[in-house]
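User: Um, what's this?
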Amino acid sequence: MLVLTSMLGVCMMFPVIFVMIYIWNKFRKLSNLLTIQKPCCRPFPEYTVAHLADALRPETKFSGVHFKRWQVKVNLWLNATGVFWASNGKPEGNLTADELKRFTDANTMFVGAVIGALSERLCDVYMHIAYAKELWDALNAKFGASDTGSELYVMENFHDIKMVDNRSVVEQAHEIQCIVKEQSS
């Protein structure tokens, strides 16, 4: 009888042991989730100047309007790529072969980048210019000067502004500030 009782007790313990093991495994996995783990922190070797330059590339091609805005974006982009200095022209004096190659490479990248950032219509007009200084000066001469027609358009927009009730005052004031800024630049 004692043997039967002990065997019955052992048989009844098996399900309890299995349940305890099951709960233990679940709790162990849960405890790993509840701990605060240090995030994987690495230095940023994959972010380079090339990535920054790519991020600074103008999103839209220049079509002849908002030249000053486009010019600032292209200036930042070409400075990040390290070729904007070519817009000053070929350095004076005798150049070594390495200096000449450096200038030629920077000039080619500058002209290619600027031509690539122009609309198709403007590309056709300026693609014959082979030197960065000539190209930058030509664009400044054509679009950098104040355009009377553009000023009249901006002034007309400014005079046509009406405050409306269904938009916030801050949003409408921001539009007015943008028009004034466009007029003054």
Notes: The chain has a mean pLDDT of 76. Residues 2-34 form the longest helix (33 residues).
